[in-house]
Write the structure tokens for this entry.
Amino acid sequence: MQLSQRLTGINGGGSDGWDVFLKARRMIAAGTPVTELTIGEHDIRTAAPILQEMHARALAGNTGYAAIPGAEPLREAVAARVAARTGVPTTPDNVLITPGGQSALFSAHIAACDAGDTALYIDPYYATYPGTLRAAGAVPQVITTRAADAFQPRAADIDAHATGARSLLINSPNNPTGVVYSRATMEGIAEVCRQRDLWLISDEVYDTQVWEGDHLSPRSLPGMAERTLVVGSLSKSHAMTGSRCGWLVGPEEVIGNLINLATNTTYGVPGFIQDAGLFALNQGADFEAEIAEPFRRRRALAHEVLAAQNTVALVPAQGAMYLMLDVRATGMSGEDFAYSLLDAHHIAVMPGESFGSAAAGHIRVAMTVADDAFETSLRQLCAHAETLAA
């Protein structure tokens, strides 16, 4: 029997770019210690009170079918949070609770694109983006940014690719670069979307991890609330990656129709997890800042380490839990450098090429190990780069 082209073509016929990560995991399985600076997984677990609430709500019986668009109290809490952070009036009817941000990304593209429609996205990009667009039936069209621009997308480049497109996917604070899009960048993006009649899909799962400047949701810009779909999640803000509790915020008509999609696919998020999600949101901004603090602290450590050498350059790390490091002075690609570092020092990082062509010659470092191990690994990384450059 033959599988569908939609399924077999999700990765576009190539590698998904995670070969270095997989090699590191094989080394660990074989008993070799490896410092993993690869994926965006907190080095702390979900806070005990959140897990206790999840457990209590499950024992209390909230284990049956849950409300498919999301429990009303959780939708109200998400709406209130979004309204407070953006200044845009938001009601529960603007919110769909999804099994994580990944499901929200897929749902947004199902809403925006018919099969065969062009969907734009920015390079560098989170590894699942092109596959998500293909899975939704869209045709991915990449817009390449430049390291010289600190990977801020240019409105003119977006406009040059917009003919015939239906949607544009952006991500700020950005994974993998750590860049926060400036107001000028966001206003340029919004202008193109208005002029070209594009849906704007804004992945804002790192909105609590901003180290420099301010996070600006494009939904708050003039004329954008009716054409913007915002992806959110508790994964990064509350260290709840495995709980799979996210949301999509958009116009009421969009959310109403996406309830039909959820009915025929995920059938909602378990009620006891939604209860825990509501409890987590109710812990407030101080709790979110506590979850983000280790990455702020490690970013400061990284600045100290990198300032003491001249081989590895840091892309402005304004947000998120990652550093994008330029290793082109070694004469190696990001992929070759990552393999070399793994073999020589048992430190695993992600090649920039895993996230598109724009970050070739770079590596992404996740700040997801304890401070002392992070500092030691970063110093070894820099020393390795200096040896190669020499």
